[in-house]
Design goal:
This protein is α/β, with parallel strands linked by helices. It has helices at about 5-30, 45-50, 50-60, 75-80, 150-160, 170-180, 195-200, 230-235, 240-245, and strands at about 35-40, 65-70, 90, 100-115, 140, 165, 185-190, 205, 210-220, 260-265.
């Protein structure tokens, strides 16, 4: 699809309308004395393991924010932040498209490893080349379908056929599937899968280049365009409390404070 000349002229006007609508909504909420709203977007893995606890602690400490959580790809996060339909993105590094500057800051250093059943033929192999894994099933959580993710790019580089790629609802589900004999391999964030490894449900596959270093980033609009609540949450993510949650996610939050994430999709 390609915009016509009229469409190109309409885009900045439509964008400004969206911005004004968001500002109007925030103004009305403030006039009513409602708590400031915090709209968070995250990758599926981050949303699954750490966002509920982060939001729970932050809203208790700030005594203000009403938070919503959405799951999105990097491209969707970027678009929603730029159009002010979201306040904070957590997961991949975002740069903006040039028209609107986004600020991304690393908040967690982690790594990606490949896990399989302890009874799998891959469990006893040593020093495997990544190219040796093209004929096994790859069990992905939704984050692995994001074109910007390390998993998606690795699968593309290796030329893993589509029939060998299976997408499951969550990293937890992917790890459970990988625990079956010779079911395949599940890419997983190392520290988030540490419990399953300790219980010997799954074991790391010895592959050259893994664990693969990764960074989680927090992204917002520039400080002069971002909401005070968004910047407060951004500062919170750099505290020792937030770091501890991201390193060792809690087992859950009280039912009254649980907010299931919404899956965000851009339609072209």
């Amino acid at each position: 699809m390609e915009l016509t000349a009229a469409g190109r002229r309409l885009v900045p006007i439509a964008s400004e309308m969206i911005h004004l609508g968001a500002e109007a909504q925030a103004t009305v909420r403030q006039a009513r004395g409602a708590a400031p709203e915090l709209r968070i977007l995250a990758s599926s893995t981050v949303a699954e393991y750490v966002v509920p606890s982060l939001v729970d602690i932050f809203t208790k400490k700030s005594a203000a924010s009403e938070a919503t959580v959405g799951v999105a790809t990097a491209a969707e996060m970027q678009a929603f932040l730029q159009e002010r339909l979201a306040d904070v993105a957590l997961g991949p590094k975002l740069t903006g498209d040039g028209s609107v500057q986004l600020e991304s800051q690393p908040v967690m250093r982690c790594s990606l490893q490949l896990l399989t059943s302890p009874r799998s033929r891959l469990a006893s192999a040593r020093g495997l080349s990544p190219s040796a894994l093209t004929d096994v099933d790859w069990l992905l959580d939704p984050a692995g379908t994001d074109p910007s993710s390390a998993v998606y790019q690795l699968i593309g580089k290796l030329g893993v056929p589509d029939k060998r790629v299976l997408v499951l609802p969550s990293q937890t589900a992917a790890l459970a599937a990988a625990a079956d004999d010779d079911a395949g391999i599940a890419p997983a964030v190392t520290h988030l899968a540490a419990g399953e490894v300790r219980r010997n449900s799954v074991v790391p596959v010895d592959v050259r280049g893994f664990p693969l270093p990764m960074l989680w980033h927090v992204s917002t609009l520039a400080s002069d365009r971002s909401s005070p609540t968004a910047w407060s949450f951004r500062r919170f993510l750099t505290t020792a409390v937030a770091t501890q949650i991201m390193l060792q996610p809690s087992r859950g939050v009280p039912p009254g404070r649980f907010k299931p994430p919404v899956y965000v999709t851009l339609w072209n």
